[in-house]
Prior knowledge:
The protein has 259 residues and is mainly α. It is 82% helix and 0% strand. The longest helix is centred in the C-terminal third of the chain and has 48 residues, at 203-250.
Amino acid sequence: MHEIAIADGGFWLSVLQIIAIDILLGGDNAVVIALACRRLPESQRNQGILWGVFGAIALRLVLIFFALQLLALPFLKIVGALLLLWIGVKLLQPEDGDGHETTDAPSHLFGAVKTIIIADAVMSLDNVVAVAGAAKGDITLVAFGIAVSIPIIVWGSKLVLMLMDRFPIIISLGGALLGWIAGHMLVTDVVMASLLRDAPHWSHVLAGSIGALFVVSLGTLLARRRLAETAPLAEVASGHGGNQTAKLARNPQETEPHA
Length: 259
C-alpha cells in the first residue's frame, strides 16, 4: 500500500508540506532548545539538544492523534499559556553563581531536556493540527516529514545557541518570543474565544505584546534581584580570600604546619 503511495506525486507533495510546516514552526523550538541548553557545560550541550529534539518530536507524534480533541477542551490553552509564561521567565534567569562544578550534571541535563519537551508540547497544540491536516491522517507521512526536518531544527538550535553566547540580548528576545506565543495562545482558548468574539482583530497582537512584555519584565526583575542577592556573598568570599593572602604575605611562616 505504502509502496504505491510513495510513487504517487501526492505523497511527496504532502511530505514537502509537512517539512515546510516543521521548518517554519521550528524557529520557536530552536529558541526554546537554545535557551534551555545555554546553562549546560559545553560537553553536554549537544546531548541536551539531541535528546530534547527527539523527546519533543516523539511527544508531538502522540499529540497528532488527539490534536482536534485537545484543542476543543476548554481552559487547556489557558493552562498552557500560563505554563509557557512561567517557562519563559525561568529561562531568563542567570546561571548559578557556583558555576557547573557543584551541579550534578546528569540531573542538570535531564532538567534541560524536560524543559524543552514541556515547552514544545505546549507550543505544538496548534502546530500539530497543521501537520495532521497536511498528512491527511497518514502517520507515515508525519513521521517521514518530521524525520527530514530534525537536522534542520538541531542545526537551528546550535546556531541560536552560538548567537546567544555572543549576543546576550538574544536571550531576552527569546523570552519575549515565548511570551508572545503565550499571549496569543491565551486569547485563542475555546473559553476566551467565545468571550472575545466581538473583540477587534488586533486583540491577538495586543495579547502577544503583553505576554512578551510580561516575560521580559518579570524575568529581568527576578534576574537582577538574584544577582543583587549573590553579589554580597561573592564580595565576602573575595574579602576573606584577600585577607588571608595579605596575612600570609606578612607571616609566610604560617604556611608551614606546626609540629
